[in-house]
Amino acid sequence: MNVKEQRILHLIQENPFITQNELAEILELSRPAVANYISTLTKKGKLVGRAYILPKEKHITCIGGANVDRKAKVIGSAQFGTSNPVTSYKSTGGVARNIAENLGRLENSVSLLSLVGDDVEGEWLLEKSKPYIDMSLIYKVPNSNTGDYTAVINSDGEMVIALSEMSIIDQMEVSHVQKRWGRIAGSDLILMDTNLPPDVIEHTIKQSYIKNIPVCIASVSSPKINKIPKDCTGVTWLILNRDEAETLTGIPLNEKNNYKKAANLMITKGIENVVITLGEQGLFYATGRGEAKHIHPPKIHVKDVTGAGDSLIAGIVYATLLGEDIQTACKYGMSCSVMTLQTNETVHSGLNKKMLHENYITYFEGEDQHET
C-alpha cells in the first residue's frame, strides 16, 4: 500500500462509518480521488463489501519465554570489580511474551504459550500480561521458579551484561504444544523464540507447515540460535542479530558485502525471509525471491536498548498480517523499535496503531536515503 492508502485505511479503522467526503476533507483530496483509493483497497482485500467492513481479525500465537525482567541502570560510568550505584526497574519480560504484548497493544488478537512457576512472580506476570495477551495457553509448573532476566545498562543506554535464569522453559515438551494444538492450529501466524528446546521448535515448524501456517522465529542469543533445525522448510521469517547470524552461518559480518552472503546461506535451509538486525546500522533483509536491501535507521536519542528487538519483530509481524511487502514491514518494525529505544520501558506503554502509523510516516515516508 502507498502512504495515502495507509492513511485512509487507518482512518477507516478508527471510524468504519466515516464518509468519503469526510476522508477527502481530512486528507485534503477530492472525493473522486478518495473513491479511487477505496476501490483499490477493496480490490486488495483491505476492505470487504459495503460500509467499509474490515477483514476478519488475524490471530497470532507466540510460543517461548515469559519471565520477570529486572533492569539496573548504572549511575555514571560502570566499574567492574566493585559496587556500582544504580536505579532499578521491574517489569514483565521474555522475548515471546514481549512480542505478544507489543502485538496486543497494536490491537492484534494474540495468545501466548509458555511455562511459568507456580509462584508469586508467575501470578504477577500473568496478571500484568492479561490486558494485552490471551494467557489461557500458559502452563504453571509446580516446584519451579518463574524465569528471571536481569540486565545491567550503562549511562548511554547500552547493555553491559545480562543475566538470564530461564531453566523453566527447558521443561517445555512437544506434548505441551500437542495438548494446545487444537487452539494453536487456528492461528494466522505462529511465532517462536529460541528459548524453546530444539525438538519443540522442529515439531511446531513441521505441524505448521502441514497446516500452511506461517512461522516466524525470533532468535534470543548466539548460544541458542543453533537450536533451529538444519531443515527449516516451513519457516516464513527468521529474525536475528549480527552476532547470531555469524554464529549460525560462520560468515563474519564486518563487511557489508557479507550480509547478503550470510542471508542467502540461511535461505538455503528453507527459510523464506531473513532479517539481520545491525544495531545502529539498521537492518538487512533478503528473501528467497531474490530481494535484498539494507535499511538504515532514523537518527534518535537512545535511552535504553532493552526490548527494542522484540518491538521490531512485533512491528514486522503486524505489518505482514496487514498484507504489506517485506520492505514496508521492515520499516514498520523499525518504527516500532524506535519508540521503544526512546523509553526506559521494555514494552512502550504508549504504543498503539495510530502512534506506530505516525512514526512510520515521520521516519520513512519518502525517505529514500534510509535504503541502500
Automatic annotation (TrEMBL):
GO terms for molecular function: DNA binding; kinase activity. This is Winged helix-turn-helix transcriptional regulator. Keywords: DNA-binding, Kinase, Transferase. It holds the Pfam family HTH_24. Residues 58-348 form the Carbohydrate kinase PfkB domain. InterPro entries: ArsR-like_HTH, Carboh/pur_kinase_PfkB_CS, PfkB_dom, Ribokinase-like, WH-like_DNA-bd_sf, WH_DNA-bd_sf. It comes from Chengkuizengella marina.
